[in-house]
Specification:
Elements lengths: L2 E4 L6 E2 L1 H19 L3 H14 L9 H7 L6 H7 L5 E2 L3 H10 L3 E5 L5 H8 L8 E3 L1 H4 L6 H11 L6 E5 L2 H10 L3 E5 L12 E3 L5 H8 L1
Parallel strand pairs: 1-4, 1-6, 4-5, 6-7, 7-8
Antiparallel strand pairs: 2-3
Helix pairs in contact: 1-2, 4-6
Length: 214
């Protein structure tokens, strides 16, 4: 194997602390704007999100802010509360090891351009040779185009690369569909399907997997 590619959210970091901070602000603004209770505002906002799950728009918080005409931008929230982005404790040691071992490293995300800002704010961007967002290819995972674009940017073939992600439908299915080795990181111990080539609970387990693939 020559390259290891990663998803971002739920794989190498989590934005949940930030989401838990700004969603109440969203519900408060929306309730005042529409003249409804905060509970109803919450239901309306979340209903729009769930209805669009795994679509192109679902991956962009700014889409939903615009949908409800809210004066919020996710980039500004990221800059204001960078400490609310939490890098998993196994991320940096794993990336350091992979770089030391000579692997090419990349990111494939279905999110918009502000995903790069997340990596910059957390100090993770320096580890990656290639970072590909949906803006680069105008499509999202599991579409083959975003994977093939990333592999070409790294100069490797699909069978020379591993994809690591927390989504079976996007990361695992998408990677396997183009001939990559797919690793499902299942941090919460969810019930899954026998779709991934490997299932791990922490990124530390990549060392053993990659050792067996050499």
């Amino acid at each position: 194997m020559k390259a290891v590619l990663f998803d971002i959210d739920g794989t190498i970091l989590t934005e949940m602390p930030l989401i838990q901070l700004f969603l109440p602000q969203v519900y408060d603004r929306l309730s005042k704007k529409l003249g409804i209770s905060k509970d109803e505002a919450r239901e309306r906002f979340l209903a729009e999100i769930f209805e669009r799950r795994d679509t192109y728009d679902w991956h962009d918080w700014n889409f939903f802010f615009r949908l409800f005409d809210l004066d919020l931008r996710y980039e500004e929230l990221l800059k204001r509360y960078p400490h609310r982005l939490k890098v998993y404790p196994d991320t940096v040691p794993t990336l350091e090891w992979l770089k030391k071992e000579g692997y090419l490293l990349g990111v494939i995300t279905s999110g918009p351009e502000y995903q790069r800002l997340k990596l910059e704010l957390t100090g993770l961007s320096r580890y990656f040779d290639v970072i590909v967002t949906r803006e680069d290819v105008r499509t999202i995972k599991p579409e083959p185009k975003i994977f093939l674009y990333s592999l070409e940017a790294l100069g490797v073939e699909p069978d020379e690369a591993v994809m690591v992600g927390d989504s079976l439908s996007q990361d695992v299915y998408g990677a396997k569909n183009v001939g990559m080795t797919a690793v499902w990181i299942n941090r919460e111990g969810e019930i899954g399907y026998n779709m991934a080539d490997y299932e791990i609970r922490t990124l530390h387990e990549l060392r053993k997997i990659l050792g067996g693939l050499e």
